[in-house]
Amino acid sequence: MLNTLTRVGPVLIATTIILTFGFATTAASTMPIVRTFGVICVLTIAVALIADLYLMPALLVLFGRHLKKPALETK
Fold first, then answer.
1. pTM score, whole prediction
2. Distance of alpha carbon 50 from the chain centroid
3. pLDDT interval class at 34 (50, 70, 90)
4. Per-residue three-class SS string for the chain
5. What is the CB-side half-sphere exposure of residue 42 using CA atoms within 13 A?
6. Cα 20 to Cα 22: distance, rounded to the nearest angstrom
7. How far apart are CA 26 and CA 66, in angstroms?
8. Across residues 32-43, what is the average pLDDT?
9. Which residue pairs, CB below 8 angstroms and at least 24 apart, start in 29-34?
10. Nearby residues of 47 by Cβ (< 8 Å), 6 or more positions away
């Protein structure tokens, strides 16, 4: 789990930063609907990053042992 987070974490953070800045440009719009869309997108992407980095590993550790399939016996 730790190895996965150390390899994937920086990529998730970089992608979130790029997407956040991209959608933040729409938050500067003069049209209220477009501005609202940009704000909602930025908030959604930020919450998704938090879930990816904190919630998903916890859920995998918690439920991971129940998801493992038993090893097949070979004779």
1. 0.71
2. 6
3. very high
4. CHHHHHHHHHHHHHHHHHHHHHHHHHHHCCCHHHHHHHHHHHHHHHHHHHHHHHHHHHHHHHHHHHHCCCCCCCC
5. 16
6. 5
7. 43
8. 94
9. none
10. none
